[in-house]
């Protein structure tokens, strides 16, 4: 498997200077961005790559195309990337392996695109840390809608609670809303994807109340498939792992047949 070359780590430092420390790919809020969001399109099919790039460009995005893993890593040298559209079936290193490598290096938003559209494939993509999954064939309107949704989540423009200045605290954990940051009881920063953070905020805003899966999708604006798939279940599982410490289970309980609940009080300051 190709690993992220040293030049990518160097590029990461450049991007970090532009936005937030140790962060790659987070776009500036739309109101202050000086350029259109840049999308790295990794697709090995030339005609489809051309059509997809054209559709995105016509909707105001800058597109940086790549047809393989080496081309993708080189594309990061050209400047900051706001989102990666990543095909799973690539020559050489697969999109799955590239996603793993990217997640070790950054939290740049990733949308998988694949001809495999089964529930199992979507779940695998989400468990790897992707922000969304788009099955082929897809239309321009759906593609652009999903790209916009993921970028809105990352720019902090989705839910009112995320736009508010304030801090949420529960069981020693701290959720900094303006920074979109989770701190552990030992003040260590916990890496969360945009979808994970949105879901955690939704749980905190309705602490000690059971929330149905469909309602969680609505509250967190998580565009990861419809309410019949396991997208929320996967995100909850990932959050539980990250909120578990010293043998203590995460304070998220499952109410069978209904949904989920953060079963500790939350304080806002």
From TrEMBL:
The keyword Nucleus does not apply. Residues 165-264 bind DNA. Gene3D superfamilies: 3.40.50.2300, 6.10.250.690, Winged helix-like DNA-binding domain superfamily/Winged helix DNA-binding domain. Coiled coil: none annotated. It is found in: Cytoplasm. Residues 38-151 form the Response regulatory domain. Keywords: Cytoplasm, DNA-binding, Phosphoprotein, Transcription, Transcription regulation, Two-component regulatory system. GO terms for cellular component: cytosol; protein-DNA complex. The keyword DNA-binding applies. This is Regulatory protein VirG. Its main location: cytoplasm. The modification 4-aspartylphosphate is found at residue 87. Residues 165-264 form the OmpR/PhoB-type domain. SMART domains: REC, Trans_reg_C. GO terms for biological process: regulation of DNA-templated transcription. One of its GO terms (molecular function) is transcription cis-regulatory region binding.
